[in-house]
Amino acid sequence: MNSRKMISLFIVFVLLFGGLDFRAGVASANDRLDFREGDYLVNILRDGDGKERVFKFTPGNRITATNTKLRLFINSREIESKEYTVDYENYTITMRHAPDLGAEISIKYSISPTFEWGEGESGTDKIGNALSEGDGSTRVFKVTSRYTINSSKNVSLYIDGSKVRSSEFTFNHENNTVTILEKRRAPGAKSKIYFYFPKTSIAGVQPSRGESTPNSPSGSVAAPSPNTSVKPEFQVPGGASFPGTIALIPDHTLTVNTTAATSRPTYFTYLMVKNAKGKLVRQIRVTPNSPSTYSLSKLGLPSGGYYFYLKTVNQSGGLAASIPQFVPINNEPQTIQVFIGGQMQSYTQAPVNWNGSTLVPLRTIFESLGVAVEWESTTQTVTATREGKTIVLTIGSSIAYVNGAPVTLSAPAQLINGSTMVPVRFVSEALGGVVEWNEASKSVVVFQNKPVIPTSAESEKAPIEAGVQEPSEPSASSPILQKISKGITDSSDIVFVIDVTGSMGEVIDYVKETVRSFVDSVPSGSNFAIVAYRDINFVDIYNPDFEFFDFTNNKDLLKAQLENLMASGGEDLEESGLEAIDMALQKLSGSKNSKRIIFITDAPVHDKGTSQGMSGFFLEEIVAKLQTNHVTLDAIAPQSGLAYEQIIKLVQSNHGTLYDINDATLMQLH
User: Fold this and answer.
1) Exposure winner among 111, 131, 283, 640, fewest CB in 10 A?
2) 313: part of which helix (H) or strand (E)?
3) What does the angle CA 51 – CA 52 – CA 55 come to, to the nearest 5 degrees?
4) What sign for the dihedral angle of Cα 315, 317, 319, 324?
C-alpha cells in the first residue's frame, strides 16, 4: 500500500471516530493538521466512486474565500477552476463531472498567517506556523497557535525558504513572540516567515482559537493527530557526546571510529576537514561502527592549520557533529612551524630549536598576539604590554618579569641574525594562552582563545570566492564532470537537473563548484540551463519546488544562478526527478545543438508505475522521450539499490554513463 493510501485511510479513521486521544478522552477533529508543499497546505479527500460529485473536506485550518486560494487536484493533475465550485461555509466542493472510481482527490490552499501544519523539519516531528509577512522593518512577530507551548528549546525559523541561524533570533514561549536580532536584517516586504516548534513542547490546546473540545474531560489535553506518518527522531547527539572519535597518531596518521549509533539506514557519517578560515576542504565518507586509519600525507593538503571533526547526517536534514580538533600539517618537517589561533605564521627569521626550546622572533610573535612592544637599545631590554600585563626581558638573561614578578625562562632571550628570539612557550603562557608541541608536524600550536568552528551544513561552503579558487586550497573539481566534458566535442545544449532536497545538504556546495569548472571546459557555443527540484507529492505547473533557469551561454550568469540553489526541505522519500527531467526535455525540444542532460541526485525517483499519486510519469515514458528526442542523459547518482535500478534505465536509453555520486562529491581514501 502506498503512503498516500495510508494517509487517506488514516484521515477516514479520524473523521469516523473523531480523532481519538489515547491519553485522555476524545480530541477535536480540528486538531488534525494538513501537510505542507512549498507555500501550500495539502488536504486529502476520499477517493472518487464514479458517481458522486459533491465532496466534503476538513482542512486543518479555518479557511475562507478571502484568506486563501484553494485549488483542486485529481490524480495529481490540477483541475481548472471553472470545473468546480467551493462552499467555504460548509467545506464542500462540487465538481461538474464525477471523478472516476478510485480517483485520488486532494485540495491545496495557500498558507496565510496563523495557519499551522505538521512537518518533520530537521528530522524531528514538529508543528509549522506561518507568521505575519515581513515589511522590511518589523523584528518582533507574534506566534498565534492553537497549542499552548511550554518550551523555547529546539525551535527553528525560516524566512523565504532559508533557515535562520539560532544565534539570529529568539523565541519567548511565555508571550509567544519571535524576535529577529540586530545581527540579521529585518525580513523584507512580503517575506514568508515560517516558525517551527517540536510536538514534545505542546502542553495543551488554546481554546481562544474557537476550536472547542466539548467531549474532552476537564483538564485533559487533546493530543495533536498528525495526518502523516511520524518520522523517527534523529538520535545522534553532537558535541562532546558525539558517538565517535578521531585519534591523532605520532606517525602522522589518524584513526577514526564511530559506534553503532551512526550506522542506521539513511544515516551517513563523514570525516570533515576545514582550513584555518573555517572553509570546507575535504569530506570523506566514514564506514560506521568500524575503525579506519588515514595517512595525513595522503590527504594532499598544503602546509597549514586544519580542523578535523566527524559529522553524521540523515536524509531529512538531521545532523550532529563532534567537537573540531586542530591539526597542523607540515610538509617540510625540517622547518619548525608556529600556529597562532590556527593561522600558520610567517617569520623573516625562522624559528629555531635551542637546547629543546623553540625560539621565535620576539616582535613578530608579540604583534601576532596583539602586544605593544618597546625596545631599549642601551640596556637591550624589551618591554611588552597588553591589557594591564607587562613583560620585561633582557637579551642574554634567563629571567623575565611579568608584572614585576620574576619568571625563569627555558632559554635566554638572544639575538639571532639581528632578530631578538624568545621562547614561544613563555611568551604565550605569560599572556594567558595555551601552548602545545606537535611532534608529528614539528609545530608549536598557540591558542589565546578557544576557536569557534561552525559545523552546520550552512557553514560548509566550497573554498570559492568571486569564482576563483583560493591558491592555498587543493582543487575540488569533480573527476566525473571532467570525464563527461571530455566526451563533449561539439557545441551542446546542456541541462543540469539537480536534486536540492535536504539530503543533498552535505554535497550541494561541492556540486556548485564542480559545475562551475565543468562549464569552463566544454566547447564554445554551448548553452546551459538548470532545473532544480525537491520532493513533490502532487505535481502541478505552479509548484514552487521547481526552480528553472533558462538557457544561457553566459558562463558568469550561470555561475551566479548556481548560487541561488539551496538544499532544504523534502522528506525521506523517493524523489520526483522524472518531472524535472521532463521539464528539461521540454526545454531541449527546439535545440539544434547536441542535447544532453546531466542528472544529479542521491535518491530514487517517483515512478507512476510504482508510486501512484506521487508522479505524473512512468519511468518507461521518460525513457522513450529521451530516445525520441536524441537526448544523452548522464547521471551522478547512487550505484546500488532502487535508485540504481531506476536511473540506469534512463542512462542506458541513449548511451549515457552512470557515475557514483560518492566519487563525485567525496574524496575517497583507500
Assistant:
1) 640
2) strand 304-314
3) 160
4) positive
DSSP readout, 487-500?
T--S-EEEEEEEE-
**Mean pLDDT of the 285-312 span:** 88
Share of the chain above pLDDT 90, in %: 23
SS3 content of the chain, % helix, strand, coil (to 5): 20, 35, 45
Contact assessment for residue 258 and residue 310, using Cβ atoms and an 8 Å cutoff = yes
| Residue position matching grid coordinates 505575519 | 132
**Is the Cβ–Cβ distance between 622 and 583 less than 8 Å?**
no
List, for residues 91-122, the tens digit of each pLDDT value: 999 999 999 988 899 999 999 999 999 876 65
pLDDT, mean of residues 317-344: 86
Q: For 140-179, write each residue's pLDDT tens digit.
A: 999 999 888 988 888 999 998 888 988 889 998 888 999 9
State the cell numbers at 565: 540553489
Grid coordinates of 568: 532544504
Report the pLDDT value the prediction gives residue 28, as an integer from 0 to 100. Answer: 36
Q: Which residues, other chains included, contact 628 with Cβ-Cβ below 8 Å and sequence gap of 6+?
A: none
User: How far is residue 65's CA from residue 69's CA, in Å, rounded to a whole number?
Assistant: 7
* pLDDT score recorded for residue 617: 85
Cell readout for 657 is 554513463
Three-state secondary structure readout of 220-247: CCCCCCECCCCCCCCCCCCHHHCCEEEE
Q: How far apart are CA 536 and CA 167, in angstroms?
A: 31
32 neighbors 60 (Cβ within 8 angstroms)? yes
Q: What is the mean pLDDT of residues 452-468?
A: 55
- How far is Cα 269 from Cα 260, in angstroms, rounded to an integer? 11
Considering only CA atoms, give the Rg of the chain.
30
The DSSP symbol for 475 reads P
pTM given for the model: 0.49
C-alpha grid cell, residue 379:
640596556
Question: Which helix or strand (DSSP H or E) is residue 664 part of?
Answer: helix 661-665
